[in-house]
Amino acid sequence: xxxxxxxxxxxxxxxxxxxxxxxxxxxxxxxxxxxxxxxxxxxxxxxxxxxxxxxxxxxxxxxxxxxxxxxxxxxxxxxxxxxxxxxxxxxxxxxxxxxxxxxxxxxxxxxxxxxxxxxxxxxxxxxxxxxxxxxxxxxxxxxxxxxxxxxxxxxxxxxxxxxxxxxxxxxxxxxxxxxxxxxxxxxxxxxxxxxxxxxxxxxxxxxxxxxxxxxxxxxxxxxxxxxxxxxxxxxxxxxxxxxxxxxxxxxxxxxxxxxxxxxxxxxxxxxxxxxxxxxxxxxxxxxxxxxxxxxxxxxxxxxxxxxxxxxxxxxxxxxxxxxxxxxxxxxxxxxxxxxxxxxxxxxxxxxxxxxxxxxxxxxxxxxxxxxxxxxxxxxxxxxxxxxxxxxxxxxxxxxxxxxxxxxxxxxxxxxxxxxxxxxxxxxxxxxxxxxxxxxxxxxxxxxxxxxxxxxxxxxxxxxxxxxxxxxxxxxxxxxxxxxxxxxxxxxxxxxxxxxxxxxxxxxxxxxxxxxxxxxxxxxxxxxxxxxxxxxxxxxxxxxxxxxxxxxxxxxxxxxxxxxxxxxxxxxxxxxxxxxxxxxxxxxxxxxxxxxxxxxxxxxxxxxxxxxxxxxxxxxxxxxxxxxxxxxxxxxxxxxxxxxxxxxxxxxxxxxxxxxxxxxx
Length: 664
Hints:
single chain, alpha+beta, four-stranded antiparallel β-sheet
């Protein structure tokens, strides 16, 4: 029986938590002078007065005493949250560039909060300035985070005529910062109301060109002590929410800018006339040019789509349509970090915002729907005829990335379309622990290993029963885990337990020596077509390694975090495997000895990095509380090739058949 998460069921009938969080915030605009907008190119650097630099995200942890003083597992929550935020911020530093904020970043105060009355006579010299302060004014907040006075501009009381009486001077501000992110770890009413929500976030302030300038992310404390979520899962969910806060939000779409390239870009920038619209069937679309062109290229069509479909979340939507862009970082469902991509269409949308210059070479290939044509993902076509992505019925098979066994099922966001979703538990073929215990019967010859992938097969070492005509009665094919290794021109070999390596040409159906039944070789999924050596295919890297990023963008960055043993295994060997032709990179197969050595090194690195995160978190908390203007230090970059808003919501889908989590 298919189990759906409570949050997923609620999302089909009610407002998304991201929208709810964003709408609870009053957006303020900073008064500093407008700066020239970005030109459209793939490079993150430019010359002249419009020079851009990598987006500098400064995090300020605003702790909850109940969790900061707690011992035991609860004490790990803030450190885990800070590590995820800093890693996600470092990833974006290699992806997005902006014109720098001039001088230290200072946020605005809300006059409606600190001022009770203003001078109303237009003939008065201080017309419309504050004439009476609000005695109950307690300062500014951002999604429940109390903003330190050191981060804020001052305010004054104005007489009817003459100079003002200063009530609060300007704070020193935050130097070297383009976006200020407040981080909370708490158990809020929203966390209680939606138990499956990991976190949520909101943008709070904008610059004069409406680019997001500050926001808050709230981590729901219980999830940070859960072993169910890996570090990469939390980083990926954090990245999703951070992208919401940086502009991928239904409330912010209408503020996107149209900025032509060239030296006159500043003068020619204007608010886009239309960013979203509904087609004649009622589908909400993001209609900006770069995103539409990128979708056309992804679907393999020359005709430009009317726009990129958005999820039906009411008049405003902040997520891609799940049927069309499954696996994108900005769909509303989260299916695990190793199945999620920072995809080209999402990066194209950020280019269309007019606020950022984008390093498009950092995009990760999205396999879902690749080359499938303009009608892909429609409710009217997803269940008709054979498909490499959708399925019919409720049988067992393989998730489309072939990392997991799956069951053919649907959910409210798929609107009746069905796909193979990972099973409730033990679906991962690349996890050794999912294999059969020593001495157990294994009639189908399955092998669980970091080189193993899911294949549709009905191979068995048992004797087949006879049908009514006296012939062998074969079971229907189902998802099974077997070893694979890549060869030249996209071909690969498959190994079943106890059998020799067997050539498996994409699209063919083969027999395995010593076994009854057949095995189907997936087409354009497991190995690159230009592979020339035996290799393990891996999914699109979350981001290039630091050295590769420097090579691509010419940027320098600080040293960063290492991954734990499980994450290192995923990022260097297992990472969701299946790239289509011309797709993801690959790693040379290594011996078990080499692999174990790498694991040991990863574990040692992780211990050191966690100690560093706790120390830096404590210092950051003290700086934000006591001085309010912490110095900007190096953020940990992402050394993992794996990837893994205003609401960091990742919801669990029941047991894992419902492993589909919801993101804000």
